[in-house]
Amino acid sequence: MALLQFKKKDTPADRKVSPQVEAFLKDYSIEVMPRTAEKVENFRDLLPEGTRVYIAHIDGTPIDDMVATARRLAEDGYAVMPHFPARVIKDQAMLADWIARYQGEAGVDQALLLAGGVAQPKGQFESSINLLETGLFDKAGFKRLHVAGHPEGNRDIDPDGSMKNVDEALAWKQKFNDTTDAEMALATQFCFEADPVIKWADALHDAGITLPIHIGVAGPAKLQTLIKFSIACGVGASLRVLQKRAKDVTKLLLPFEPTQFVADLAAHKAANPNFNITNVHFFPLGGIKTNATWAIENGGSSTVPASQTKDHV
């Protein structure tokens, strides 16, 4: 099967690309929202062709805007993965309509299923499990279904700070993966410290959770921006990395880059090839152009079967 390969941009002369990081960043993904996508004149100037692009569905975003963004990205040669936030979807009829529109208008056959960022469900769905139980994605022929992973727990799911409910949900999703044709993976919230992430990933493997992990990485951004988003998104223990940096007034105004976090995980992956973190997923909190530039300068690239690009739409 033919592959589309992005030719990496020239990196600055003083920046040496680490082979370990380059390997770790291969086939990275990135997230956009319709309102941020509108500000990008040409995605091909920023992202390797074939990059998986998640489209975040924030409560209140019209489905027309989501589908239009999906179609644009697909036509430009990207593998599009829209969010399906369970608590925003009222019923099976709405879910079926969204699936049909993404599929019919943009050729989408993959999705990220998650509970969504609202406290109370607007209809019959509360979790990604509820969405999977409908069977609608399988019926529509969706090939790849990603679900959320929580390296530092999730207070919405486990108010007591434990991992009990999160772990039970993962066990259910693992069984779903093992007994259906779905190709599943975990896409996690962004983190900042490698050691806790490595311990979490190893613990999942020991518990029989073999779903590939796409680790969330916050793209380069102002420190204040990252702290704000981290608190809002419930990032836990690894937030201390940012808090420690914030105490150094000489670094307070400098952009924070994920260089050390990615390098540490890449080194662990190189030393442990079967490590279950397989991909990097970027949250471009400091802007997609800034994030895309950092990724390419550090060796990021992407390949994808031609059937998943614009020729498939």
TrEMBL record:
Q: Which Gene3D superfamilies match?
A: 3.20.20.220
Asked whether the UniProt record includes Oxidoreductase among its keywords, one would answer yes
Q: Which UniProt keywords apply?
A: Oxidoreductase
Q: What is this protein called?
A: Methylenetetrahydrofolate reductase
